[in-house]
Design brief:
Blueprint lengths: L1 E2 L9 H14 L12 E3 L1 H17 L8 E5 L6 E3 L4 E5 H6 L3 H16 L2 H32 L5 H42 L5 H17 L13 H13 L10 H18 L2 H7 L7 H13 L3 H14 L4 H13 L3 H14 L4 H13 L6 H14 L4 H14 L2 H14 L3 H14 L5 H19 L1
Parallel strand pairs: 3-5
Antiparallel strand pairs: 1-2, 2-3, 4-5
Length: about 475
Amino acid sequence: MSERPTRGRSSTPASRAVALATVAVLAAAQPAASQGLPLIRDTEIEQLLRDYTQPILRTAGLAQQNVRVVIINDRTFNAFVMDGRRIFVNSGALMDAATPNHIIGVLAHETGHISGGHLSKLREQLALAQTQSIIAMLLGLGAMVAGARSGSDSGLSQLGAAALSGPQEVIKRNLLAYQRTQEEAADRAGVKFLTATGQSAKGMYETFKRFADQILFQRAAIDPYVQSHPMPSERVAFLQELAKSSPNWDKKDPQELQARHDLMRAKLFGFMERPDTVARRYPSSDQSLPARYARAIAAYRHSDVRGAVAQVDALIQTQPNNPYFYELKGQALLESGRPADAIAPLRRAVQMVGQPALVQIMLAQALIATNDTKHADEAVGLLRTALQKEPEATEGYAQLAMAYGRKGDYAQADLASAQAAFTRGDAKTARELAARAKTRFPVGSPGWVKADDIVSVKTTAKATN
């Protein structure tokens, strides 16, 4: 499990409404990685979320759109969409959702936004609002200038000030009313998708009811016309009626899915909480698999590697076909300075995981960290395969550069280093390394062309800035 550090962000209701409108515009221009979001990457969790979303996406007609769920390292309960390809969900939502159905309901709601084309429509409304705002500003300035020319300090001047402020409030309320309509449509679509896939909408209803209770507790008086979401009581009543009309209202999640969900939550708590917090949530008297998983992770994260490995070995004995236990063992050994010992469990994990790209990168890292040149070719093969699936994996390119360095192939090492810099948004370094790589490759060779592409893209970007 890995995460990308990033800038903080405000969590106040007002700033969040502004942020949502802003990111909707920015999303089309750049990938999430370059926006500085604190992303969490984990094969086990991502596979579970794929299993949660695939039935919904098929029902919504989005199966071919390659929509994926992106995890943000944020302890608050939140999820949102910024484009038609990604659903962003906070780690806090995953940690707080007691059942799969709770988080599946949230994902269904966000899918409703994508299927309804709400983001493109919101951009149109934002553009319209901006145009209206500019017109209102010009009218207000015109009135103020007229007042100044007539020598009046009140009259037209005051009218101009009113013309500046009045329309702005109307524009804002119209835009928020439009957003409330979108939220209601996403709720309706989400329930429709859940019903069509034979799942209950109870989790969706319970989640939004909890939000409503929190909002009503925090704010005694709310102006319904300055909210970007429907009023809590109205939304809950609407959802309750709609969700209870489904024949699946009392349907429970499959036990196997609940078990995977519990392990996912335990993993997040183990990695993200302090050991004393983990111990309170999962005391030693709790011998369930999730509790043992969380304690093993907490032990490794806080320097008790020997104890952690022993606990993971016990987990493997309980579930010898669980690839993520082998992955955890390999990660603990690798990060404790024992890369050679990490190779075997990581090899096993790669063999067993359905989508092993991230684990392949970790295995390659262990092979390279042994400083044994005989492992270089295997590491290169693993990384090239992984990067075909994860073309934005900065760490993959960085490891590939080291693997080629072990082989003495400095042209490919420079190219991989340039690609690593490119994916992390370091334009200057990417251009410099790509330019050097070009001098090492034969002109017109595949490596030369890739390096030239990086130099050209960055040169163009600089020229247009």
